[in-house]
């Protein structure tokens, strides 16, 4: 196992997730392989910043938990970059503020870095549905809509084009080589586009370091809360459209060949198999079969529409993002 120190960055933005934030931090503090530190980066919310500083004031001297203000523009990407710059670890892991990590999470990440060519290791994200169960119509192939691992990703410890940002880790040297997360593409409250910043970073990283290896280890598990509002088809459709917008930006930046490399297999193999599975379940009178098949078709068409609109905007110069270098590392 690698003996590299690991810093954990959790980006937060709202007091509405107060209990979730505390649970996320507690799950990091309970790891079998302790983190060097946990960094809470608060996105332009002075009230939350002050409240968290008071909550973890006893950790100030040890540095076990540090509370920081996002030093860049509003949004998840700048928050992550703030955490990267402040982190002292040789590996930097990211955990969503509404997720909890299993006890072996960091241990599994650390094992992946035994090979010095490995620049990033991601894990598996499982949904915790607010209603207590997956909606019958919601296809597992679209669990990325709610920030979770979706059907179609290969199991085990596998090499991938990109890790998924809510459950991922990178060597610090990855950011030295490629820069930080791009701003203008990642999450900023409910604004669109809403994602793909980790995809763009990973592609940029492998271009800067052609020998780089990126892995997903499905034993590095976190559990991600899915609020009731995200269990409805309206959110499903909105998020699929936003994904299309984001993919257009990425493809414009890195080229469609690389930017859509994984998506081609997903749309030509994984999703058709999902439609067939849903229709088979409908014929067998199993709950939700027709709904899942229909949701897959609707999701593909909506994402494709977003991609077309995003491509037109990008060509006209109406949508752009920027990449900044990361400074710091010993605050």
UniProtKB/TrEMBL annotation:
Coiled coil: none
InterPro entries with a match to the protein in the record: Glyco_trans_2-like, Glycosyltransf_2, Nucleotide-diphossugar_trans
Superkingdom, natural source: Bacteria
Glycosyltransferase 2-like domain residues: 7-176
Protein name per the record: Glycosyltransferase family 2 protein
Organism: Streptomyces longisporus
